[in-house]
Design goal:
Layout (H helix, E strand, L loop, with lengths): L5 E2 L9 H6 L10 H18 L5 E4 L3 H12 L5 E6 L2 H12 L3 E6 L8 H10 L3 E7 L1 E2 L4 E2 L2 H8 L5 E5 L18 E5 L11 E5 L1 H9 L9 H8 L10 H17 L1 H21 L13 E5 L6 H10 L3 E2 L1 E2 L8 E5 L6 H17 L8 H12 L3
Parallel strand pairs: 1-12, 3-4, 3-5, 5-8, 8-9
Antiparallel strand pairs: 2-10, 6-7, 9-10, 11-14, 13-14
Helix pairs in contact: 2-9, 3-4, 5-6, 10-12, 10-13, 12-13
Length: about 375
């Protein structure tokens, strides 16, 4: 029997055919007018998605490189920072800060729990020396969205900057950088930007740039000043990931054709359909504030979580994601991110129904898929 592979993970995500084909273009030299035009066109496209007038820098790295760049370019040794840690990637903010000697006030949340702007306001009052607040827009390990707009409101009344990991959230969840008063926003290519892994994007507000000018943490490859100088010359300081940038330019054409607002609405509808389908067969969501990027689902009693994910992947070729440490086996994650459509969701839920049936979970067969299908059909355009 022919079995197709269905990529339903929160990153890397599926790539449009035209974007894949763009990687076959002949290699060009990066210090030429031809590449500068491609480079600057791509920068402009990312600025539009970030919804900012600030410069956007393209880094040849994963998103974690942009996270490190955010820390080393804005802080100095022994500066104090708040990290909102609601999962694996909130935790990464704390690890990067500590690696560079930053004093961290880590707000450790139960996975899936929200954190309000009122809670942040109280924390800021208790810690007036804070230089930066680090958060995620949408935590990939839990599928939880955070109140970035609210955090921005709080920090406009402070000298501290708001630094946001939008790696999985940008393009799927509203996050206008300038309107919401974000000071550093970053993302990466392998999520809703619809490009293979390898590019990261970062932007600094004027408020953040004043800290960049003062920062004394060590930096070389991720030096924002060097990157800005090169951007002014329509290039990058180091050899860029040429083929990936060409692919990103192609993907931006698709995103522009769809429209950013429509793309966000698309992700919302896929998320609503997935969550409704999941809940219709008695499964429980992990997150109390679900994001549009993925749906995290608690493993029901009597079912082995690792075996469920393995069955989905190996038998039905539906590559969902399991939970990450320290919660492996406790829940699974179905992504609805990037180049996915309603039929991808129906495929994922069909495979889930079959895997659960294999494992003896009792439910009314077909209800999960039919519930999702009704929401998708109602919103199909």
């Amino acid at each position: 029997m022919i079995k197709k592979h269905y990529l339903l993970s929160p990153g890397p995500t599926p790539i449009p055919e035209g974007v894949l084909a763009a990687a076959t273009h002949p290699m060009i030299h990066h210090r030429t007018p031809d590449f500068s035009r491609i480079f600057m066109d791509t920068v402009t496209g990312i600025k539009n998605i970030f919804q900012t007038k600030n410069d956007v820098f393209i880094l040849a790295s994963s998103g974690s490189g942009a996270m490190e760049a955010a820390v080393v370019n804005t802080l100095s040794p022994e500066d104090s920072a708040i990290v909102i840690n609601g999962g694996k990637f909130g935790s990464r903010w704390a690890k990067i800060c500590r690696a560079y000697g930053v004093s961290v006030r880590e707000i450790v949340l139960e996975w899936g729990e929200p954190y309000t702007k009122e809670q942040l306001s109280e924390e800021m009052k208790k810690n007036p020396d804070i230089k930066a607040v680090f958060s995620t827009l949408a935590e990939t390990s839990t599928g939880t969205a955070y109140d970035i707009r609210g955090y921005g409101e709080i920090l406009t009344r402070s000298d501290a900057i708001l630094v946001v990991d939008g790696i999985s959230g940008i393009g799927a969840t509203p996050c206008p950088m300038d309107k919401w008063n974000l000071d550093v926003l970053l993302s990466a290519s392998q999520k809703s930007f619809m490009v293979p892994p390898g590019l990261a994007y970062i932007s600094f507000s004027q408020k953040a740039w004043s800290l960049v000018e003062q920062s004394t943490l060590p930096k070389f490859y991720f030096d924002a000043k060097e990157t800005k100088n090169s951007l002014n010359k329509e290039t990058s300081p180091w050899t860029p990931a040429i083929s990936l940038i060409i692919q990103q330019q192609e993907a931006l054409k698709i995103i522009n054709h769809i429209g950013l607002d429509n793309l966000i609405t698309h992700h919302r509808i896929l998320g609503e359909a997935t969550r409704a389908g999941i809940q219709s067969i008695g499964l429980e969501l992990l997150s109390k504030r679900p994001a549009n990027i993925l749906t995290a689902v608690k493993i029901p009693s009597g079912i082995d979580g690792k075996t469920l994910v393995k069955t989905m992947q190996e038998k039905y070729k539906a590559y969902i994601a399991g939970a990450q440490d320290p919660h492996k086996g406790e829940f699974f994650r179905i992504a609805h991110l990037g180049y996915m459509d309603g039929f991808d969701i129906l495929t994922a839920l069909s495979a889930l129904e079959m895997a659960l049936e294999d494992m003896g979970y009792s439910f009314q067969k077909g209800v999960c898929v039919c519930t999702a299908k009704e929401i998708l059909k109602e919103n199909w355009e």
